[in-house]
Amino acid sequence: MNESKDYKSEKYLVVTVGDNDFYNDIYVVCNLLYYHFQSRGEYPESKEDLELLKPIIQNLIYQSTELRRYNNKDYPASKLEYFVPDLWFSDKSGLKWLDDTEFGVIPMFSGAKVFMK
Predict the structure, then answer these.
(1) More confident residue, 18 or 87
(2) Phi and psi torsions of 27, nearest 5°
(3) How confident is the model at residue 112 (pLDDT cuts 50, 70, 90)?
(4) Based on C-alpha coordinates, what's the Rg of the chain?
C-alpha cells in the first residue's frame, strides 16, 4: 500500500457484487474502507492489494446484509458466497460507463467522498 501523497492523479477503487439490490451495503462498506485508508494515510495500489482486500470486503458486505435480518424474520437469508466482490482501479474517465448504481467508488486520495455509480 502506498501513502496518500504518492497519489497525485485521481484514482478510484471500484467495488461491486454485480447487483444493485445491495446498494446500501456496498455504500456502507465503501465508506468504512475509505475512512480506514484515510486514517492510515495508505491506499491499495496493486492487484495483490486487491486480492488481500477481496475476502475482507466480501465478509463486510455479507455482514451488512445480515444486520438487516436482525429482528426482521421476513428478510431473506443470504450466503457468504453470494458476495464475492469484483474490485478494480479506475481513473475518472473510466467511471463514465458505470450507470446501474451497483458500483461503489472509493477515491484513492484525500478530500473526496465515496459515491455510487
Answers:
(1) 87
(2) -60, -45
(3) very high
(4) 14
